[in-house]
Prior knowledge:
With 243 residues, this protein is mainly α. It contains twelve helices and no strands. Helix 6 packs antiparallel against helix 9.
Amino acid sequence: MNEQRVPAERPIDASVRSLCWIGGLAAWLLTAYCVGTMVQLGVLGGQPATAAEAFDLLQRNRIVGLLRLDLPTVLALPLYYPVFLGLYAALRRDEPALTTLATALAFVGVTLVLATPMGLSMVPLSDKYAAAASEATRSQLLAVGEAILATDMWHSTAAFVGGLLAQAGAVLASVVMLRTRVFSRTTGWVGLLNHGLDLAHIALMPVLPRAGVVLMMAAGPLYLVWFPLVGWRLLRLSRAAGE
């Protein structure tokens, strides 16, 4: 019979207590972001398909336009830094090499994604488009807008490589969870499945977009399980470190 493993309750170093606490809080904030994104997609819709649609959205309702241009994602992505710092603080003593590699991959990946053009770049273009006096100027602004959409966090080479690296780091962190007793096996297996599906989704999108979308839809709900599990455990570890 397989024995259900219980996470170890030994306290971690008090020096990393704040990292675990901040990482746990960030994980819960990412949970809220995931819920909000699902609601937004259902109510408002996804990213505009064209620059003209994006400009029109921003002129009619700037808040809705920014939401559909992924401003919440831009604000939420930096939360991955404290989450992985918290995981590093929790796991480094048992698996220092693998934990360091997982953290480095995640940090580089998130940074690459954040370095791509974002929806905020469309705001001044939208204003210039609305004020343009000639059709030639409007056509130029539309061309710039299309270039931004084609190189944003979902389509550019930097975003593609960054997504692969970030998800690879999360997969590796989940493997470390399964090799140690700091997190439950449930957390490790959910993370491995969740980020493994997302890694496959990113890898397949350029060549098999339909398969990539299916994998993305399968991975999405699992974030609502993984982030709370990680957040709860990191907060608990932060309390144990202070005892």
